[in-house]
Amino acid sequence: MGELGELELELLQGNQEKHISLLKNFVAGGAGGACLLFVGHPLDTIKVRLQTQPRVPSQDVLYKGAYDCFLKTVSKEGLLGLYKGMGAPLASVAPMMAISFFGFGLGKQLLQPDSTKTLMPTQLFLSGCLAGVFTTVIVCPGERVKCLLQVQASGGQQAVRYAGPLDCALKLYKTQGIRSIYKGTTLTLIRDVPSNGAYFMAYDFLKHKMTAEGESVSQLSTPKILLCGGIAGICNWIVGLPPDVLKTNFQTAPDGRYRGTGLVDVLRELLRDEGPRALYKGSNAVFLRAFPANAACFLGYELALECLNWLAPTW
């Protein structure tokens, strides 16, 4: 294809992305986030329980691995036990994904105002980083509540302090105000800014690479969308898992155990007690979850966007 044909293709792709409104991003992003949550939350519960179980000799640990945690959770709590703490992220997933996709689109426009030009991978990465900054306001309190509910469920009835997401949020607010709900904000930023950069960079880059010459990225087949989304999810967690381990331990620790943001204290304690491998605690559950959950997320987003473009082209 000649230079004129390439320019026409890039113009087509640029115009399609440019005319995705915030309202469409909100609805499509919510659909994608809901798909991600329903597919990925059971393994997220396993991940959190593995990351926060007491640091004792290996023969006495509550869970010996992801599969053992799965079996014990289902035997004690049933299949619904794998969905403990899902209420908080479910309530926030639509605005979170809307803001995430909006932040990525805004970042692309700021870094490359000319929609006829293709962005470099570094520009895609920085655009994704902006999305991570935007979503932290919603993600942090949701993660705080989710992790507390997931951890208390693994401790048996005697450890139950919260009746559900709303009860947990209200008790946190009554105890120490809004600061308690937003405990772990710095660590959430440290996790989400670079990991979102890797996430969106991988998906957008792979999506364009897999698009056949002469076709638009909107014509990408379902298997290719799933593959791009799954790989993007793996890239996200390769970058984000170590700070996620720190964040989870900090957010579920008793008040006053760690100073300040918790970064230095939690890192020092984990390295002292368990060594560098502690930063990838729960990795089996994370990577088992990452591919199918994020493949479902991007497929849900793309399908919802396609439906919205057909039902309401003027939005």
Tell me, rounded to a whole number, the average pLDDT.
Answer: 82
In what range is the share of β-strand residues?
Answer: under 5%
Helix content: over 70%
Tell me which oligomeric state these chains represent.
single chain
Q: Give helix and strand order, one letter per element, not per position.
A: HHHHHHHHHHH
Blueprint of the fold:
Elements: H1 3-18, H2 22-52, H3 66-77, H4 87-111, H5 121-154, H6 165-176, H7 178-181, H8 185-209, H9 222-252, H10 263-274, H11 283-311
Short overview:
With 315 residues, the chain is an all-alpha fold. The chain is built from 11 helices and no strands. It starts with a helix and ends with a helix.
3D structure, described in words:
This is Mitochondrial carnitine/acylcarnitine carrier protein. It holds the Pfam family Mito_carr. It is a multi-pass membrane protein. GO terms for molecular function: O-acyl-L-carnitine transmembrane transporter activity. With 315 residues, the protein is mostly helical. Helix content is 73%, strand content 0%. The chain has 11 helices and no strands. The N terminus is likely disordered.
Quick tags:
single chain; 315 residues; mainly alpha; 11 helices; disordered N terminus; transmembrane; Mitochondrial_Carrier; transport; transmembrane helix
